[in-house]
């Protein structure tokens, strides 16, 4: 007889845990506070267009993601597109992302270009991240690319993604981000990214159906109150003042929620969870009647813009309108995170009109802002060692979120891979 296991959170990792458990003959029950599955991959109704609140894309190296599509018999929904990248610098939109674009880039000397290109190339060839684990990232990059390329191509990315945390990030974590994009290229000059027909919802609903078909259960609008521990063992969870018994509990919700939901953990473990820091995001999604640029990625280095870049999603996935995502990453305690949506929407209109002066007020069909408090863990040098173990010193309790597949950046494929492994380990 299979085990009855509570899974906390219905983002990609939680769904992957439940998917694996149900396929292995267990009875997972997924508890999700939101009214839909998906977490940061969930979609919303953007005035008749069903689209993700936060942008996602897929690389040819996303093996765990592609394996699940094959298992669910929806691999034919995957489409690969040759995408372009641009750089907005010195009031000029320039091509970016390949050796020719780097050589032609205006505003950077030849030596700086060579050093930048060499560093990026070597990052894509490196496989062993351990030597970078305890190195601080900004110093590591500066030592490779030099002060000029750092100033033009890197500094604002750090400043407007991490603010006061930007001087203490892990070089291994930054390296993995360079490598992932580098490895999405199928040649030195061409970048290929993927999208799912119907967006992430196609995968989310296929996984949800598979979980339910195999005896699992998903409960939406079901925030749990407490994970109950007795005599060093999990006995179940409290929801609506009722104790529901489970053999095991696997949590995939953001780590900062854990001290409140599992307060009976040893104090040393609670302190380690409390020490985890996260960046928040306010992500503005814009529906336009005409394209902004021809690029999917657009990096920005502009004194008038407090963003490191934006994503023109409709240049990857064909849609009825032109869709641009503009993410503002901010520490949750930053005063700007408290600004109204209107403040962010007005900034975005101003930025897009500057990048493409042909855009008129009437070209902005609609703008919306979504907020997520725990969008991005801040990974300091030696990050993994600072986290509690996934299998906590409580019988039957596992806790992880996107932090745990460090040095990889958060992504659907990484979450699926980690969730499936965690499910297998939990029932050994």
Characterize the structure shown.
By secondary structure, the chain is of the alpha/beta class. It is built from 12 helices and 19 strands. Helix 1 runs parallel beside helix 7, helix 1 packs across helix 12 and helix 4 crosses helix 5. The longest helix has 26 residues. The two termini are 14 Å apart.
Proportion of residues in extended strands? 25-35%
* Secondary structure: number of strands: 19
Low-confidence stretches: none
Strand order of the largest sheet: 7-6-15-16-17-14-18
Radius of gyration: 22 Å
Put the structure in a nutshell.
The protein is an alpha/beta fold. The chain contains twelve helices and 19 strands. The strands form five sheets. It has a seven-stranded mixed beta sheet with strand order 7-6-15-16-17-14-18, sandwiched between helices.
């Amino acid at each position: 007889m299979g085990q009855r296991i509570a899974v906390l959170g219905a983002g990609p990792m939680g769904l992957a845990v439940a998917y694996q458990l149900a396929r292995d003959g267990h009875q997972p029950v997924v508890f999700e506070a939101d009214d839909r599955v998906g977490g940061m991959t969930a979609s919303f109704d953007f005035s008749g267009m069903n689209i993700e609140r936060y942008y996602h894309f897929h690389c040819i190296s996303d093996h765990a993601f592609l394996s699940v599509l094959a298992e669910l018999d929806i691999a034919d929904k995957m489409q690969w597109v040759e995408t372009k990248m641009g750089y907005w610098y010195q009031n000029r939109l320039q091509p970016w992302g390949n050796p020719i674009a780097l050589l032609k880039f205006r505003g950077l000397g030849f030596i700086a270009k060579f050093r930048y290109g060499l560093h990026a190339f070597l990052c894509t060839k490196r496989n062993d991240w351990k030597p970078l684990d305890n190195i601080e990232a900004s110093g590591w990059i500066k030592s490779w690319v030099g002060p000029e390329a750092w100033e033009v191509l890197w500094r604002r990315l750090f400043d407007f993604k991490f603010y006061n945390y930007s001087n203490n990030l892990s070089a291994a974590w930054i390296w993995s981000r360079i490598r992932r994009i580098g490895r999405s290229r199928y040649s030195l000059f061409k970048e290929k990214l993927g999208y799912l027909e119907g967006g992430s919802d196609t995968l989310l609903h296929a996984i949800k159906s598979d979980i339910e078909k195999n005896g699992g259960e998903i409960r939406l609008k079901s925030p749990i109150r407490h994970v109950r521990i007795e005599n060093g063992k999990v006995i179940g969870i409290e929801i609506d003042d009722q104790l529901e018994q489970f053999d095991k509990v696997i949590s995939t919700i953001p780590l900062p929620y854990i001290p409140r939901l599992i307060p009976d953990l040893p104090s040393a473990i609670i302190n380690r969870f409390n020490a985890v820091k996260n960046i928040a995001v306010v992500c503005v999604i814009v529906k336009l009647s005409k394209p902004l640029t021809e690029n999917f990625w657009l990096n920005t280095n502009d004194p008038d813009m407090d963003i490191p870049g934006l994503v023109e999603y409709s240049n990857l996935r064909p849609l009825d309108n032109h869709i641009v995502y503009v993410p503002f990453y901010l520490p949750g305690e930053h005063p700007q995170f408290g600004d109204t949506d209107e403040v962010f929407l007005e900034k975005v209109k101003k930025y897009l009109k500057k990048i493409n002066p042909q855009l008129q007020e009437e070209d902005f069909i609609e703008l919306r802002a979504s907020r997520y408090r725990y969008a991005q863990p801040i990974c300091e040098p030696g990050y993994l060692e600072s986290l509690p173990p996934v299998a906590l010193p409580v019988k039957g309790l596992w806790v992880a979120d996107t932090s745990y597949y460090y040095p990889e950046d958060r992504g659907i494929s990484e979450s699926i891979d980690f969730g499936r492994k965690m499910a297998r380990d939990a029932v050994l």
